[in-house]
Amino acid sequence: MNENFGKKTLRRSRDQRLLTGVCGGIGEFLGVDPNIVRLVFAVLTLMGGGIFVYIIAWLVMPEEGGRSSVLEHIVRNFQGKKSEL
Which UniProt keywords apply (predicted)? Predict the structure, then answer.
């Protein structure tokens, strides 16, 4: 039996993206409309923390179908190791 069957992973979306796919990926993971997630990020931005949270999410969430996150790619390149996004 497939061990990954029914197992959700948090990844940036390729289909539901406006900028980097963070909100689309969170929406797909939670099973809600990505526009609701975008609205939450907009409110957080007005309150003073949304942009910071969005950038952190973009750095640590791998893209759908990708092998590693942007942050992992940056760290591996800094170490002189080969990395694929």
Answer: Cell membrane, Membrane, Transmembrane, Transmembrane helix
